[in-house]
Amino acid sequence: MATVSIIDQILKEKLSAEHVEIIDESYLHRGHKAAGGAGHYAVKVVSTLFENVNLIDRNRMVYAALDEQINGKPKLIHALQIKTYTPSQWPG
């Protein structure tokens, strides 16, 4: 399964995300030795679980959900840009 599909599935399951957008930006970082083959991704996540949760804790929730992909072996995610929204905040 492709990493984008894995990220999408995890965020929908673990964060009850109503909407997930993922952009694979790995091509912008070709040759980045520290990445070790893991990807760079930008994600937008819309979830009711973010209601009354500050931005830092929302990001922590996303990092916690994707911990295995960030820190596991094999490491799938090297860098992650996160934008989080509640359904009422989502401009989409």
Low-confidence stretches: none
The proportion of residues forming helix, as a percent range, comes to 25-40%
Gyration radius, to the nearest Å? Answer: 13 Å
- Number of DSSP strand runs: 3
Separation of termini? 27 Å
Question: What is the arithmetic mean of pLDDT?
Answer: 91
CATH superfamily: BolA-like
CATH-defined architecture: 2-Layer Sandwich
Strand content: 25-35%
What is the CATH level 1 assignment? Alpha Beta
CATH topology: GMP Synthetase, Chain A, domain 3
* Helix-strand string: HEEHHE
Largest sheet: 3 strands, mixed
Structural class: alpha+beta
Individual helix count: 3
Order of strands in the sheet with most strands: 1-2-3
Q: Categorize the overall geometry.
A: globular
Write the topology of this structure.
Elements: H1 3-14, E1 19-24, E2 39-46, H2 55-65, H3 67-71, E3 77-85
Parallel strand pairs: 2-3
Antiparallel strand pairs: 1-2
Write a structural description.
The chain has 92 residues and is an alpha+beta fold. The longest helix has 12 residues. The protein has 3 helices and 3 strands; from the N terminus they run αββααβ. The model has no long low-confidence stretch (mean pLDDT 91). The chain has a 3-stranded mixed β-sheet with strand order 1-2-3. It has one domain: 2-Layer Sandwich (GMP Synthetase, Chain A, domain 3), CATH 3.30.300. It is globular and about 40 Å long.
